[in-house]
């Protein structure tokens, strides 16, 4: 949740500071690189969960572990109140259809634009669209029976301060999906990816401090402010820097890795 929405679970949007040339160099490491392991892990599930999507020459296919393959509960979810069924699918940013991409963008705009506009960051649609199209970004789409996206989360394996992490960029749910356990279920996917890929030990995200509902959600899920999160600072001439966002993180235990969803 780049910064979650005003209502609980309404906006769960996170974004990441890219590291430029040094970051790119790290991402070109050999196959032992934990970040590459995460990418392969996510690719593997993607290819197996959506078998009709044949891999292209630019995007190789990898086999997923038997444990993950054998658990179909990642691809479907039933609303506990209405009992309506929703499908969950995992794909890369470049494989999103224009309709799905636009719906995801409008969900962000609907749930978080006000928070952006109230911050020092401001709302910059061109920048947000470019971020959403980052090649290494992966989406989990939640669609209703009509095939319309009603929620999603996006993630990317990357480095923060030289440490390999799984970064949650966004998590947004339409109003009818809030407070249903779905948000926690989506977060458990990220935890499974991170915990299954030692030496990755951390999931990170960014949340606007004005978004009290989001902060409560993340705290209840075990996230705390990360040491690199900005803090108020006294500046020259009596000025003071007051951050309007927090960088949060959660340590995952690879010894308890479970390749499957947590109960909703």
CATH architecture: 3-Layer(aba) Sandwich
Largest sheet: 9 strands, mixed
**Total E-strand runs:** 11
Task: Report strand %.
Answer: 15-25%
What is the molecular shape? globular
What class would the helix/strand composition place it in?
alpha+beta
What is the highest CATH level, the class?
A: Alpha Beta
Number of domains: 1
How large is the count of helical segments? 7
The assembly state of the depicted protein chains is single chain
Task: Classify the helix fraction into a percent range.
Answer: 25-40%
Average pLDDT confidence is 77
Low-confidence stretches: 3-31, 45-70, 258-264
CATH topology: Aminopeptidase
**What gyration radius follows from the Cα positions, in whole Å?**
18 Å
Family: Belongs to the acetyltransferase family. NAA40 subfamily.
Domain N-acetyltransferase: 91-253
Catalytic activity: N-terminal L-seryl-[histone H2A] + acetyl-CoA = N-terminal N(alpha)-acetyl-L-seryl-[histone H2A] + CoA + H(+); N-terminal L-seryl-[histone H4] + acetyl-CoA = N-terminal N(alpha)-acetyl-L-seryl-[histone H4] + CoA + H(+)
GO molecular function, one term: histone H4 acetyltransferase activity
């Amino acid at each position: 949740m780049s910064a979650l929405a005003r209502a609980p679970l309404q906006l769960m949007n996170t974004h990441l500071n890219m590291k430029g040339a040094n970051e790119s160099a790290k991402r070109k490491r050999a196959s032992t690189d934990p970040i590459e392991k995460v990418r392969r892990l996510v690719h593997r599930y993607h290819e197996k969960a959506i078998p009709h999507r044949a891999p292209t020459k630019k995007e190789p296919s990898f086999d997923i572990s038997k444990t993950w393959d054998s658990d179909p509960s990642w691809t479907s979810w039933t609303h506990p109140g209405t009992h309506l069924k929703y499908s969950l699918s995992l794909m890369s940013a470049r494989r999103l259809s224009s309709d799905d991409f636009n719906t995801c963008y409008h969900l962000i705009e609907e749930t978080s634009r006000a928070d952006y506009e109230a911050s020092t960051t401001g709302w910059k649609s061109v920048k947000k669209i470019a971020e959403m199209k980052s090649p290494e970004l992966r989406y989990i789409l939640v669609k209703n029976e009509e095939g319309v996206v009603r929620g999603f989360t996006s993630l990317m394996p990357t480095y923060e301060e030289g440490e390999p992490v799984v970064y949650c960029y966004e998590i947004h749910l339409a109003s009818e999906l809030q407070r249903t356990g779905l948000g926690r279920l989506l977060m458990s996917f990220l935890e499974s990816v991170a915990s299954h890929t030692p030496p990755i030990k951390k999931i990170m995200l960014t949340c606007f401090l004005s978004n009290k509902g989001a902060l409560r959600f993340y705290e209840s899920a075990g996230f705390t402010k990360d040491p690199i999160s900005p803090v108020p600072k006294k500046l020259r001439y009596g000025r003071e820097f007051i951050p309007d966002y927090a960088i949060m993180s959660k340590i995952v235990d690879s010894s308890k890795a479970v390749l499957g969803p947590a109960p909703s």
